[in-house]
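Sequence design from tokenized structure. All designs in this work follow the same two-part layout: the structure record, then the generated sequence. An example of the structure record is given first.
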């Protein structure tokens, strides 16, 4: 697995543009710049910055050249590179760029300082909230407020509180800053509710949305009464945040009547708009109330698939008060006419609600035709721990690798190190499985066995793993072999004698971590993470995405054809060029076509791009994160991560604004048509195709 973009992907992208004519749509980028395109030398410098970002290596000379360039685009790129690389060596340069006369440069510098989360930079950022500076440069002030929220020092929190307390909620010029300050306040925790509440009276809908968001995160009981009023706001996203905060935990510290809150949430469950309805269902499920159960049972029969999913989940968490809903959940789980994801959710909810009363349900679905249903059955049997080992052993032989891998993992966890010997014959049998996930689980079991007699088998397993596309089995084999040292063996000599050549970098790194000096002597130091693309590829990316003036920078329009209808997105390669190029290369390879959507959190997001359909797969490499100033709004498309710089092909589309993701995940596209389809899609339904479209097809 490569840690940077694979060589050739940029070239695939460039060739595709040249040969297809590339359906494009003009979209302004949020950068103030010279209308003239970048000169050749400027393109080369911007490409050097992009290469540094891709290697996560800080080169002071390159950054300083860009930071002092005449073109503001280069100075802004220098600031962004400092933030993405996250090397403290760039802090002083970022602080200087915060004073740049160009708004885009100063705003990018504030964003970078937020990514670095340096408390010593708080003073410089607080100055951007000065009323005189704020009125002249609200964009910079808004980014400064966001950065202060990331830093979250006493000085930063005091500055945010002072702004929210003293600024005029009816003043048009402060609304952009207020929205950012309110999101920052939601994470700060020390901002008085009164300072936030005054912004709920703003005429600006975005400000009210963020005020509701901040109040929903507040722990002060005083927020609940304000949220009750906001639950009637004309804007559906304000209502959604408001009802999200009306939980039983929030109510417990107030003198509000339980019935009044249940009434409010019951009305919200009938809301015509998607997000308030879903959030109300989640909140009402936190109450041990027969009325709440009745409302959720009605929602189970909704024609909107996400309603049934969230109702099942909520009922499962309610405990004894919701036992009357168990037949409803069992009926949904057994109904073959329902979509598999709805049935699987009902199975898991049934087990949460009544484990013993749902065991027969599990037995009846062991041979169901859907792997998602059988995977939920595995999860159910796992709740019985060692008492369900016979059923789990059967499922460990399932024809679908996802179900089999889940079953093996459940067996390993259920038995633990002390009892793993009970399934030694099963481990020996499944070590030769063609399924990567199964072998990873089996090797974890071998690590717990700590049996010297298995050493030859582990060496063979590592040998086979060298041909895998993913490093997971190789890493698991290294762990199991190294654990033999815990019983007095010294396996490293025979291991490195048989395998004198280093494997993939992840396996190499794990071997050094487990074996230490013997691994370094045999294989050398783990290779540094450096891009292997030629400089020309980075220059081509800059020429395509960054060099053009925003008003003439035509951005590709992409159509995601789904079983619920088309979804059109615009790629923001001007903000995330590495990610956009990777996405286009995968489209050109038809990588996504026919894949199942893998994960859903209603009113939050749906996730796709996994060839396995269960969030465990990818393209066989990773790319760098490219956090940027685009906010996660309704319809934002971001890269899914399992840790920093772990993106590959999996992406998600936001159902509603998600301020908590800003700057944490890469936004690389935005939905321009088809949001309603997103609000009906379920995991298991397929991406029919992803393709570029011509402007004439937009919205068709």
């Amino acid at each position: 697995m490569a840690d940077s973009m694979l060589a050739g992907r940029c070239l695939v992208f460039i060739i595709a543009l040249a040969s297809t004519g590339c359906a494009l749509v003009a979209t302004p980028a949020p950068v103030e710049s010279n209308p003239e395109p970048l000169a050749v030398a400027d393109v080369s410098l911007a490409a050097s910055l992009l290469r540094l970002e891709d290697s996560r290596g800080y080169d002071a000379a390159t950054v300083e050249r860009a930071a002092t360039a005449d073109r503001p685009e280069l100075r802004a790129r220098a600031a962004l590179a400092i933030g993405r690389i996250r090397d403290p060596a760039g802090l002083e340069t970022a602080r200087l760029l915060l004073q740049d006369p160009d708004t885009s440069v100063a705003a990018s510098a504030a964003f970078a300082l937020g990514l670095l989360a340096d408390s010593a930079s708080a003073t410089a950022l607080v100055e951007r909230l000065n009323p005189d500076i704020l009125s002249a440069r609200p964009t910079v002030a808004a980014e400064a407020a966001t950065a202060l929220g990331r830093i979250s020092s006493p000085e930063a929190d005091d500055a945010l509180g002072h702004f929210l307390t003293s600024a005029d909620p009816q003043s048009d010029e402060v609304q952009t800053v207020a929205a950012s300050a309110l999101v920052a306040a939601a994470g700060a925790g020390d901002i008085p509710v009164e300072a936030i509440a005054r912004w709920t009276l703003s005429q600006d809908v975005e400000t009210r949305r963020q005020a509701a968001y901040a109040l929903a995160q507040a722990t002060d009981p005083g927020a609940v009464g304000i949220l009750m009023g906001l639950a009637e706001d004309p804007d559906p996203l304000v209502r959604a945040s408001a009802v999200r905060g009306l939980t039983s935990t929030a109510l417990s510290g107030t003198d509000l009547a339980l019935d009044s809150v249940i009434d409010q949430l019951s009305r919200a469950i009938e809301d015509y708009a998607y997000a308030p309805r879903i959030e109300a269902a989640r909140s009402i499920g936190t109450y041990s109330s027969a009325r709440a159960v009745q409302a959720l049972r009605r929602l189970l029969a909704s024609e909107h698939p996400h309603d049934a999913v969230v109702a099942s989940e909520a009922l499962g968490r309610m405990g004894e008060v919701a036992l009357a809903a168990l037949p409803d959940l069992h009926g949904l789980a057994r109904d073959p006419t329902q979509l598999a994801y709805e049935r699987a959710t009902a199975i898991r909810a049934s087990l949460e609600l009544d484990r013993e009363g749902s065991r027969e349900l599990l037995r009846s679905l062991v041979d169901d035709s859907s792997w998602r249903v059988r995977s939920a059955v595995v999860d159910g049997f796992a709740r019985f721990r060692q008492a369900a080992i016979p059923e789990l052993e059967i499922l460990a032989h399932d024809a679908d690798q996802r179900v089999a891998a889940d079953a093996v993992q459940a067996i390993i966890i259920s038995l633990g190190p002390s009892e793993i010997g009970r399934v030694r014959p099963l481990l020996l049998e499944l070590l030769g499985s063609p399924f990567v996930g199964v072998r990873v689980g089996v090797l974890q079991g071998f690590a717990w066995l700590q049996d010297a007699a298995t050493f030859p088998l582990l060496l063979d397993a590592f040998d086979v793993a060298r041909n895998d596309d993913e490093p997971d089995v190789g890493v698991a084999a290294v762990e199991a072999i190294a654990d033999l040292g815990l019983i007095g063996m010294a396996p490293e000599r025979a291991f490195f004698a048989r395998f004198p050549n280093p494997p993939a970098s992840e396996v190499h790194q794990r071997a050094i971590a487990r074996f230490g000096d013997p691994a370094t002597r045999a294989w050398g130091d783990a290779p540094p993470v450096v891009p292997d693309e030629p400089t020309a590829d980075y220059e081509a990316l800059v020429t395509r995405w960054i060099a053009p003036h925003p008003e003439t920078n035509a951005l590709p329009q992409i159509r995601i054809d789904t079983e619920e209808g088309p979804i059109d997105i615009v790629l923001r390669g001007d903000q995330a060029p590495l990610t956009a190029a990777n996405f286009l290369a995968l489209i050109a390879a038809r990588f996504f076509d026919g894949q199942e959507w893998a994960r859903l959190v209603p009113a939050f997001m749906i996730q796709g791009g996994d060839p396995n359909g269960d969030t465990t797969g990818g393209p066989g490499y990773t790319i760098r994160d490219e956090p940027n100033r685009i906010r996660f709004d309704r319809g934002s498309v971001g890269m899914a991560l399992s840790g920093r710089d772990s993106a590959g092909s999996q992406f998600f589309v936001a159902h509603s604004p998600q301020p908590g993701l800003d700057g944490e995940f890469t936004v690389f596209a935005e939905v321009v048509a088809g949001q309603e389809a997103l609000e009906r899609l379920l995991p298991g339904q397929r991406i029919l195709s992803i393709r570029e479209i011509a402007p004439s097809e937009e919205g068709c």
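DSSP finds 36 helices and nine strands in the chain. We note this feature because it recurs in several other targets discussed in the main text.
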